[in-house]
Amino acid sequence: MSEQPQQNIPEQNDESRQAEYQLLGILLQHPVKIDEVADMLEVKHFQIPQAQLIYDILLKQFQQDSQISRTKLYLELQKDNAVANPAEVIEQLTSGFNTIEELNPTIDLIRKNYQRSLLIRASRRIKEVAKNTDLSVDDYQARAQELIFEATSESDDLQRHIYTMEDALMQSFSAYMDRKHKKADVGLRSGFISLDNLIGGFKRGHLNVVAASTSMGKTAFAINIAKNVLKRNTRVAIISLEMEATEVIDRMIIQEARVNGWKFTQGETNDEEDSRISKALDNLHELPLMISDERGLNVAQIRARLRKFKAQMDGLDLVIVDYLQMIRLPEETAQNTSRAVGEIVLQLRNLASELNVPVILISQISRSFTSRQDKRPVLSDLRDSGNIEEVSDGVIFLYRHAHTSAAAREQAEAEGTENDTDVIIAKQRTGQTGSIKLFFEDEFIRFADPENISLEGTMPHA
Predict the structure, then answer these.
(1) Helix 103-130 crosses helix 14-29 at what angle (to 10 degrees)?
(2) Model pLDDT for residues 447-460, shown as the tens digit of each residue
(3) What is the pTM of this model?
(4) How many angstroms separate the CA atoms of 365 and 372, rounded?
């Protein structure tokens, strides 16, 4: 037996019809309320086609004339035979006695019905997606989560982001006092004192891009930050699109134990180094870290994984995505890679805001700088990678002069500066720009901050 179509679904039920017609009746009897309603309801919120048509006409009247008129509504409905009997429709809407007190409850009900309709449509789309046998389980889960997120992303809270001067001043002063008395999160400290003094930590909801050309140590820098913050029991998620999870952990062990990276990977460590490795494992094994190392993920799949990680760890404090150019682009945008990458960056910034967590996105830059006399990277070097410089909240470049040419390496070795790394803060929405210097310790695949070394030198030995 064939499946019969559902009747009385929320999009078309009696409750929706009654609420939408009641709202239109209130507007026609109290035209001055159109501006209040227009700020809270759009045409899309109406489920009944005739009610949607009438509200659209009233909105257009309001936009053109700053008021609404029954006569103009009648003429518009009469035009092109939009409804069978315009006069009768208007009479039905205005025949009842609708008080202004019913306005806000009616708006709430219309929005509630709209949310329900979105969830029902999402469930149908999920059912259709499930019929696609070519999708992997991960792809299906990511698509299903994305559809549910789209259906629930519109808040039921009617309070708009509109403030009087008094409201804004009170919120600003309250936030200032929280920061002053150390009650507020002023930014996640990276563990590099020089960097933290300059940028004030990584802010929740911000997208921070760490960019450099090949072999400058981008991934090592990000892993270094992750290890630093993990030591403070900060919850970290790493989306590694290039390295396997074991490789990420190997880097952390090498950094923590300060053993030669090559000897560690070759199993050539001695007894004393093995003891340091064992201690590093003890230090690291209970830290709150989740890693995804599947390659070729798209943004929807990254979003799904991070939501899952956040639920598993009961929150997130830092996300690292390594790296931008390895994120799978939508097939339909293959003809315009730069635009597609820019859209990915925008989606990741929105994701940082959605999860309320700082996101560090690692990115490659082109080697176009090699033709310049001053080879330090600048924001314009990112233009081949979409609109990173406009969308991101912060941009940090890594620059190691010794790695720009053979002659530069020889000069650096002669001067003893081969491990110098310039960390250039080229953009910072809520902090300072400028640069600091870190040392890259090749043997341990880690960065060292002269400020940290100086502070550690003043501490008494246990």
Answers:
(1) 140
(2) 988 887 766 555 44
(3) 0.66
(4) 14
